[in-house]
Amino acid sequence: MAEKPFSDSWADASYWWEGRTPAPDAETLPAKADVLVIGSGYTGLHAAIQTARAGMHTVVIDAGRIGEGCSTRNGGQVSTSIKPSFGSLKQKFGADTAERIFREGQASLDFTAKFISDEAIDCDFRVVGRFHGAHSPRQYEQLARDAEAAHPVLDTEAYIVPESEQHSELRTDFYHGGIVFPKHASIDPGAYHAGLVEVAQQSGASLMPNCAATALAEEHVEHEVQTVRGRIRARNVIVATNGYSGNLLPWLQHRIIPIGSYIIATEELPKDQVDEFFPTNRIQSDTRKLVYYYRLSPDRKRILFGGRVSLRETDPRRSGPILLRDMIAIFPDLEDVRISHSWAGTVGYTFDSLMHAGRRRGLYWAGGYCGAGAGMAGYLGNMIGRQVSGDKTATTVFSEIPFSGRPYYRGNPWFLSSSVLWYRILDRIR
Ligand SMILES: Cc1cc2nc3c(=O)[nH]c(=O)nc-3n(C[C@H](O)[C@H](O)[C@H](O)COP(=O)(O)OP(=O)(O)OC[C@H]3O[C@@H](n4cnc5c(N)ncnc54)[C@H](O)[C@@H]3O)c2cc1C
Question: In the Cβ-directed half-sphere of 79, how many Cα atoms lie within 13 Å?
Fold first, then answer.
């Protein structure tokens, strides 16, 4: 690894913020709205677009800049977002529900592609496919078994790539073969978010940055929300705060586990080196419990490499060199490469590794994407927005399955270090 892992101009900021101007501050918070959306990521903006288009006076607030959270920090890998296997879901919920969960995963991918195309959002959305590498021979065998047992109606078109053919996907000997999911996509997540901001504003929604909601009083007809910029009453409130939820809604806080995800961008690499190591444009991930996810930047000049680096949460100055070291373990010839950007965000996990959406009186929420919400967050945000607008066809299985917390969890993931340690051990022995 280079003696100085950071380039001279490195930034402790998301690569996707480069060259983007944050949405301007709005004037004053209105005293009343039909719909108040708390959180301005993909979930919140997609919901707001639907309610504003239905003619409802819609206000979106965010504690930080518009899009401050994960939606402008992520790796831009768009998958079906469903983490548990079909078999485990079938055992837990029965075959019908398991199938509906998988179908909605696919629907979220299709929805994202169609929305971007219909709204002509310029965000480099491309169906490039994913190569998911096996980090051990045993994991490769498991992938092969999974591919064979794939449910016929789910139509993933996934296929196995043996170790002997791996270099056609990725020039590394780190993996023992892998599986390709041809329908997964890549996106420029910052440009996607910027496009959503534009669509939301054109649809009539008002966006208010630096306006943290600090208290929420649930009432029968209207909710009163206290913010740092005054009070607002709204008949419908959509809580779209995911990994940044805090204690605004204790019920939600007791069900969503905030976990840091860390990522770097390298400085620009020579074209022939990029072409050699990444012969395709696919997105990449692997079978480790502490998964690495990576890809090229849309201009194919940098590698964006992410994962979980430490037992406890840390800062990008520490996480950057660890990620770089791990990336070099996969591509040893890149040992002199340096980091141009290192950043992190807080994703929202759940105890069942599934996302959830729901409503209680006029209070709606969606979240818990378990680090895979690039497509699903918009899909469920759209669903919630349509429900608020009275669309009876907007139903989702993620409102029907139970959303449980644990008696020992009140919002502080004290068990995180031991879980990460356990996963590290599993990754070594499996
Ligand atoms: C480093 C990283 C890499 C990732 N990579 C991928 C990937 O490659 N593929 C993928 O599918 N997913 C990925 N994800 C996850 C994905 O980005 C998220 O699932 C998705 O963006 C969630 O969107 P959201 O709108 O629900 O939440 P967010 O975008 O996090 O938005 C929540 C917003 O709520 C605001 N907020 C919180 N509390 C309050 C309050 N009290 N008042 C007002 N506002 C409040 C926050 O400021 C924040 O802006 C990644 C995440 C990270 C951090």
Answer: 22
